[in-house]
Amino acid sequence: MPNIGPVQLIIILLIVLLVFGTKRIRTLGSDLGGAIREFRKGVGDSDDSQTAAASDEDSKPASKND
User: Fold this and answer.
1) Contact between residue 22 and residue 30 where contact means Cβ atoms under 8 Å apart
2) Residue 16: CB partners within 8 Å, gap ≥ 6?
3) Sequence-separated (6 or more) residues with CB below 8 Å from residue 4
4) Distance (Å, whole) CA 5 – CA 17
5) Mean pLDDT confidence for 34-59
6) Nearest one of 3, 4, 22, 24 to 12, comparing CA atoms
7) Cα-to-chain-centroid distance, residue 59
8) pTM of the full predicted structure?
9) How many CA atoms lie within 13 A of 28 on its CB side?
10) CB atoms closer than 10 angstroms to residue 16
11) Residue 48 region, left (φ>0) first, then alpha (ψ -120 to 50), else beta?
12) In a 10 Å sphere around its CB, with 0-12 CB exposed, 13-18 middle and 19+ buried, how is residue 25 labelled?
């Protein structure tokens, strides 16, 4: 895989800027940031619910079936 140097990176960024424009890039950036925040929040909520379920199972008394 070829290495991307600083000159190539600047050229790519300039092309992206020309194609999308500054307003669209800002909108895309904020949308992407919001999506990442929601994803992390969802993953955190999932971990919290799994932790709560595991602690509930540990705190339940064992039932005796005699």
Assistant:
1) no
2) 25
3) 12
4) 18
5) 79
6) 4
7) 33
8) 0.48
9) 8
10) 13
11) alpha
12) middle
pLDDT average, residue stretch 51-57? 67
- 16 contacts 25 by C-beta, under 8 angstroms: yes
As a three-state string, the secondary structure of 4-64 is: CCHHHHHHHHHHHHHHHCHHHHHHHHHHHHHHHHHHHHHHHHHHHHHHHHHHHHHHCCCCC
Residue 58 has which token pair? 């540990």
Closest CA to 46 of 34, 35, 38: 38
How would residue 34 be classed by pLDDT, with cut points 50, 70 and 90? very high
> For the chain, how many residues are written?
66
